[in-house]
Amino acid sequence: METTCPPLSHPSVQILESLRALSGRHWFLFPGVHNSRSTPIRSETMNRALKTMGFGGLQTGHRFRGLASTIMNEQSGFRSEMIEHQLAHRDRNKVRSAYNHAQYMAERHELMQWWSGY
User: Fold this and answer.
1) What is the pLDDT of residue 72?
2) How far apart, in whole angstroms, are the C-alpha atoms of residue 24 and residue 111?
3) pLDDT reported for residue 28
4) Cα distances (angstroms) measured from residue 17 to each of 13, 20, 22, 39
5) Beta-carbon neighbour count of residue 60 at 10 Å?
6) Which string of b and e fits 19-32 if b means at least 16 CB within 10 Å?
């Protein structure tokens, strides 16, 4: 089964294209310090940056995902299954997960357009 990257909103694609001038020589948008060719930044890097900005104990990188899930589920009107799929959460129902390989790409693209406007 072919995997695809999550859909992005038009403004997100424009931002990423503008960043190509700064990081285009690297494989990753946020490359690691020690081996920028094959390693992205560590997951702890975001948390250290938040702490440096004064958000230590208040916000973490993972809490942004929880915030996004909450807002999308409460305000977007999109199906929760599709929102969880966009956040790369696996279906806990093993039977459904074994049979349902839907990607929901059209809906996920619409969700990202909505999120970008939000």
Assistant:
1) 97
2) 27
3) 82
4) 6, 5, 10, 21
5) 17
6) eeeeeeeeeeeebe
Distance CA 36, CA 100 (A): 36
List pLDDT tens digits, range 7-24: 889 998 899 888 888 877
pLDDT (0 to 100) of residue 71: 97
Distances (CA, A) of 103 to 7, 19, 34, 50: 10, 28, 35, 32
- The Cα 118–Cα 41 span in angstroms is 27
Question: Given this model, what pLDDT does residue 70 score?
Answer: 96
The dihedrals phi and psi of 38, each to the nearest 5 degrees, come to -130, 5
